[in-house]
């Protein structure tokens, strides 16, 4: 019942109050009952149905409350209802079969349903038909409850519009498919009913409140409907049919897979004369899907909808493969086979030549005596549009310097290219394999620039992304990366291509102001996670080595790993303004809000704390990478190669500036020491990037719990670096430099003494050869110490000079080896003179030649081979402390340790043999024999002291490699290493009694 509110007037007196109508809920809805002497009109009884069978013109109860507040009226006010007399005829059974519709004319929003078979007819048999109308409203089962407001509004609208036409219209039910209202209309057969007009009236009235859908029976038109990706595609919608009386089309909406298409650089929407056109400038795979067009009208919420018949897509571009791609050809009338093939059942031809097929060959004969020039042959597809691939031949009158079965022939420096043959790189790859003709008459520097075809297609499409296509594209990228994980992680070109795709995504999201949704970000993190797994470490090492090599070669640096992190930072900055968590196998993301303080722990490995802020509501985004240490090199601002990333890498961004943030990292390797709190600085090394400690400081290092706490005053990507070496100690530097100074002074004194006595020691051949060895040992160590000081200065400089450091390392290596090999020459002289008891044999000149070849020739060969084998891969030098041979990366230090310690062992064996011979030999009777024995004894004594001394020194050097944190070994090595010159003076020169006699 309705509440009747009367105005409050002080003089008003209620004398009488009559109740006429009351309504009560029942199982089927509600019933409205009249009081005594009141009734419903015959019209309402027929329209809403009497509660029981009634034969009188009126009824006291109906099954619904009429709209507009109508109530029961006094019985005396009703006129008799007109009734019709019916005559029953013989029954006729009819069945209506739906006919197939082939017209492309859009249908009405209402759909007539097949009538049920009728059993009897009469001259006044009512005509009944059922229709459906679609409302663009999310369906709910509660709409079928008669007490539901939505049910009441739609039902009353249908009844009311029917009454206006003299037709009974009744809502039957709602069903899903948006929301479809099914209703029944009944009209007297004596009057031809205009169901079309009624249905339009119902649709128009409902459209004032709800979006009514006028469905088109025909499908959207696509031009072209059978083209290739990256072509322009036009989609046409409408116009609505004239008999629909749709009115003026004011706007249009387009959807793909139910997602609204926004106008952008690649998608344009136009409306004219009731027709809307969607133009896709470059149709890519992310544009595939089911298309839907909605033409809107101005006066209500109704729209005309037209869909594509099925999911629309274009064809992948033909993949054309040519062989060779670039080749050197001599102008000697030789024949070169030019091959071209195409995938996907297409055909190709060489432009300007006859003959076509899916795989063709053209034999080109280079003319005799042709000029040096490049000749290009174009292979093209027989399609619209035409796709091409070129072959370039370098014609030359000069002979071929390199000849190879795969790369053909070429002159020195010529770069040949062949396709990515499946037999060499596996199937489903595109690109080329290149090699350069070298002076050794071989094709070297082979580069496999072969990329998976699905990755290459995504790379091509990533240049044309928009807000509409980006979400679908990122899902495709994730699927390809996951499905081809094994091929991706072991291939530098595939990783570089995916990083380039992520860079394009980041750039597009910035330039087009695209917000990245949670689902899209999850796809990005899954893709990035695959690129960080342990199986990628070797591939990233290769890429990072090439990055570093570009610095050494003074070429423009471009770091793939740094670009990878930069793209992720950019994409993260474009996240939608919402809070959520994303957890993948290798990366975790948390985006939340805070006001004053913040504290969060990730996977029990990283704790982030912001102790205070300005109190405003702020958004913070944190990403923790489980294995980004596989990707980023551990180089710091000193370009050290011995550090290791020993904690998770954490990326932090905030909507407000934060000046104080604390990180607590669980260390990954507890054998490492010397933690440094660092962030990735993209500008280091001319944009190559590296770890930088500016703005971060170490707060707490707890070895017992294996944690390191850092404080930083800015936000970016953070981690900790730790080194296997002991911390640099000042007293070690003092010991080293004082010792080197004493050593160099001693060597200068040694050479001065040798110069003073040089004429007097020439009389005895053995003594002469011994002093030649001593002089060269002293000269080698003196020059090595000079280069050691130069190398230390280069390493300590703020601006690093890798070429200079490489030169210093080469000379230090060479002259230290020369020291040992001259010791070996001295030992070989001792052995030769001790065992050659009968005299004769090699002349002095021959022995000098052997000595100089052994003393300088062998070290030169070892040093040259070492730098040639390790420098191209940046594995020659270690720049973290001083310029010296690399250990951790290439083990180049073994090129010094193995020869040096081998010579120590050989010298000790020689000493044992010589001492045994000297002890057993009888004392000579002549002065010459006595002097010879004296010289041999001096050589033996010198070697007996210097060999163990040098052996101990470099044995301690090997001990540092085994236990780099042992400070005792560091001190002992610094002491012995720095006093080598002093020991050579004492035991190489002053130990000889005749030298002392001459001098003193």
TrEMBL record:
Cited Gene3D superfamilies: 2.60.220.50, Immunoglobulins, Rhodopsin 7-helix transmembrane proteins
An example molecular function term from Gene Ontology annotations: G protein-coupled receptor activity
Main location: membrane
Cell compartments where the protein resides: Membrane
Biased composition regions of type Pro residues, renumbered to the chain: 109-118
One Pfam family linked to the record: 7tm_2
Name listed for the protein in its UniProt record: Adhesion G protein-coupled receptor F5-like
Organism lineage: Eukaryota, Metazoa, Chordata, Craniata, Vertebrata
């Amino acid at each position: 019942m309705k509440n009747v509110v009367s105005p409050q007037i002080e003089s008003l007196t209620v004398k009488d109050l009559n109740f006429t109508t009351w309504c009560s809920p029942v199982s089927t809805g509600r019933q409205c009952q009249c009081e005594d002497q009141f009734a419903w009109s015959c019209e309402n009884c027929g329209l809403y149905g009497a509660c029981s069978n009634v034969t009188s013109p009126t009824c006291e109860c109906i099954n619904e409350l009429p709209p507009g507040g109508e109530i029961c009226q006094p019985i005396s006010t009703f006129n008799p209802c007109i009734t019709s007399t019916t005559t029953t005829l013989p029954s006729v059974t009819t069945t209506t079969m739906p006919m197939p519709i082939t017209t492309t004319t859009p249908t009405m929003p209402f759909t007539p349903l097949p009538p049920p078979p009728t059993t009897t007819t009469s001259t006044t048999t009512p005509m009944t038909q059922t229709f459906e109308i679609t409302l663009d409203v999310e369906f709910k089962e509660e709409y079928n409850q008669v007490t539901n407001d939505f049910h009441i509004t739609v039902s009353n609208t249908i009844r009311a519009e029917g009454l206006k036409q003299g037709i009974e219209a009744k809502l039957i039910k709602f069903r899903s498919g948006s929301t479809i209202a099914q209703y029944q209309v009944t009209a007297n057969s004596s009057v031809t009913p205009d169901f079309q007009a009624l249905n339009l009236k119902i649709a128009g009235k409902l459209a004032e409140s709800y979006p009514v859908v006028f469905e088109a029976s025909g499908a959207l038109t696509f031009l072209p409907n059978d083209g290739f990706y990256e072509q322009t595609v036009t989609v046409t919608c409408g116009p609505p049919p004239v008999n629909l009386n749709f009115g003026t089309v004011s706007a249009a909406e387009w959807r793909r897979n139910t997602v609204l298409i926004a106008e952008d650089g690649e998608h344009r929407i136009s409306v004219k004369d009731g027709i809307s056109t969607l133009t896709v400038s470059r149709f890519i795979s992310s544009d595939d899907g089911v298309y839907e067009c909605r033409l809107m009208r101005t006066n209500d919420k109704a729209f005309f909808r037209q869909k594509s018949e099925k999911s629309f897509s274009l064809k992948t571009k033909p993949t054309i493969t040519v062989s060779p791609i670039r080749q050197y050809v001599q102008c000697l009338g030789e024949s070169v086979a030019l091959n071209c093939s195409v995938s996907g059942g297409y055909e190709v031809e060489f432009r300007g030549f006859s003959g076509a097929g899916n795989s063709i060959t053209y034999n080109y004969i280079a003319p005799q005596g042709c000029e040096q020039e490049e000749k290009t042959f174009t292979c093209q597809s027989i399609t619209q549009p035409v796709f091409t691939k070129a072959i370039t031949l370098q014609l030359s009158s000069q002979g071929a310097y390199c000849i190879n079965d795969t790369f053909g022939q070429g002159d020195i420096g010529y770069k040949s290219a062949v396709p990515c043959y499946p037999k060499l790189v596996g199937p489903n790859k595109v690109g080329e394999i290149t090699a350069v003709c070298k002076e050794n008459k071989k094709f070297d520097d082979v580069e496999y620039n072969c990329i998976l075809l699905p990755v290459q297609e995504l790379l091509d499409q990533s240049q044309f992304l928009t807000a509409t296509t980006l979400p679908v594209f990122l899902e495709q990228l994730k699927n390809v990366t996951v499905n081809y994980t094994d091929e991706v992680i072991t291939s530098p070109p595939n990783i570089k291509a995916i990083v380039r795709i992520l860079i394009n995504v980041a750039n597009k999201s910035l330039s087009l102001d695209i917000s990245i949704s949670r689902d899209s970000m999850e796809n990005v993190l899954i893709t990035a996670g695959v690129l960080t797994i342990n199986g990628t470490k070797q591939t990233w090492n290769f890429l990072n080595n090439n990055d570093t090599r570009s610095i050494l070669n003074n070429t423009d640096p471009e770091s793939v790993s740094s670009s990878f992190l930069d793209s992720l930072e950019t994409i993260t900055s474009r996240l939608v303004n919402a809070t959520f968590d994303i957890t993948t196998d290798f990366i975790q993301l948390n985006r939340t809000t805070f006001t004053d303080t913040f504290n969060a722990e990730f996977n029990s490995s990283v704790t982030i704390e912001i102790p205070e802020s300005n109190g405003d509501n702020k958004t913070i985004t944190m990403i923790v990478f489980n294995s980004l240490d596989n990707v980023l090199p551990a180089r710091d601002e000193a370009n050290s190669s011995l550090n290791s990333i020993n904690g998770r890498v954490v990326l932090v961004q905030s909507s407000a500036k934060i000046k104080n943030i604390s990180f607590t990292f669980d260390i990954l390797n507890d054998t490492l020491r010397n933690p440094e709190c660092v962030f990735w600085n993209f500008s280091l090394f001319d944009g190559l990037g590296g770890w930088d400690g500016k703005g971060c400081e170490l707060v707490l290092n707890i070895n017992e719990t294996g944690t390191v706490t850092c404080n930083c005053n800015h936000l970016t990507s953070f981690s900790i670096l730790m080194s296997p070496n002991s911390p640099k100690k000042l007293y070690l530097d003092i010991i080293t430099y004082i010792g080197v100074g004493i050593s160099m002074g001693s060597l200068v004194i040694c050479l001065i003494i040798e110069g003073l006595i040089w004429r007097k020691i020439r009389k005895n051949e053995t003594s002469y050869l011994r002093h030649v060895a001593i002089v060269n040992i002293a000269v080698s160590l003196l020059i090595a110490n000079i280069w050691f000081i130069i190398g230390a200065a280069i390493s300590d400089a703020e601006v690093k000079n890798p070429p200079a450091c490489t030169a210093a390392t080469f000379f230090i290596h060479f002259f230290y080896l020369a020291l040992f090999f001259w010791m070996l020459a001295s030992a070989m002289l001792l052995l030769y003179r001790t065992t050659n008891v009968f005299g004769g044999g090699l002349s002095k000149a021959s022995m000098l030649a052997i000595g100089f070849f052994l003393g300088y020739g062998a070290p030169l060969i070892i040093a040259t081979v070492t730098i040639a084998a390790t420098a191209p891969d940046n594995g020659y030098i270690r720049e973290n402390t001083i310029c010296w041979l690399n250990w951790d990366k290439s083990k180049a230090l073994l090129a010094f340790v193995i020869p040096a310690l081998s010579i120590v062992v050989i010298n000790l064996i020689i000493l044992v043999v010589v001492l045994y011979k000297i002890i057993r030999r009888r004392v000579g009777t002549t002065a010459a024999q006595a002097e010879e024995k004296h010289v041999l004894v001096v050589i033996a004594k010198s070697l007996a002291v210097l060999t163990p001394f040098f052996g101990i020194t470099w044995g301690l050097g090997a001990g540092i490699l085994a236990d780099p944190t042992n400070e005792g070994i560091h001190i002992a090595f610094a002491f012995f290493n720095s006093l080598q010159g002093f020991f050579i003076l004492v035991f190489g020169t002053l130990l000889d009694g005749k030298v002392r006699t001459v001098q003193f």
